């Protein structure tokens, strides 16, 4: 007889509207639809890392599956940047101004067209009462989960950001209050910085370290690189800035390898040094999961690009104190 008191958790990566893959993965993990109509495992709980919505074709079905599991106590979830963006996109502010916390199609704001484009599939698929119900639900989602033996966050576990949210909002789920959503949508507000870090991950300036700008996949010139906060051994710019040869410079050449430049202490402030496993999504890994995908003893990404031709993936955690890549399970 199994007398272990540690609950088992299956941490599931960014779904982005891929309901067929989600149901295949849940079945593979042993979750079944009971009489009540929601997926359930006899001994385990699912944890979603956020980003249920945007991009994919079956967003409403994904929301129905996941919310019914969470409501029934068979799953937990943290907020992703796409749920946060949806809340801001649909919140008119100031009220009756015709403006929104996340701008729509403002001719003075070149980013705002991109905001609508990124959200277009949701706008088409989730409408009317459904939209109200799920936006309301998004506002209740926590930004992180600390379950003792494991931690879950969408993009980056960062103690200072967590403390800031707790001290300002008194909760890990701050957005039931409109004032918190407004503050988190206002550049320069400390809550904005903290929520950006937790949901989108920290970034580092390349130009400030003597490197050129690069052009991202949409052709937009950028100076910030994502910080590989999970790499506790990072000592140099090359270790910590995620460039990976996927980008080009303004002259169209492949971005040069970053130098082995020693980092000042402040630049390592986001690096995760705790010894509790943390699971996160957000980073569009290409599968299958292996060492070079940056899982470490204490950090594991579960986003394997389900909506971009990858496989929806879970990490099956059963109380182990170190991450073990054998415990990744991908949808068939
Ligand atoms: Mn995502």
UniProtKB/TrEMBL annotation:
It comes from the Bacteria. Coiled coil: none annotated. Pfam families: Metallophos. InterPro entries: Ap4A_hydrolase, Calcineurin-like_PHP, Metallo-depent_PP-like. One of its GO terms (cellular component) is cytoplasm. Gene3D superfamilies: 3.60.21.10. GO terms for molecular function: phosphatase activity. Residues 11-159 form the Calcineurin-like phosphoesterase domain. It comes from Mycolicibacterium rutilum (Mycobacterium rutilum). This is Calcineurin-like phosphoesterase.
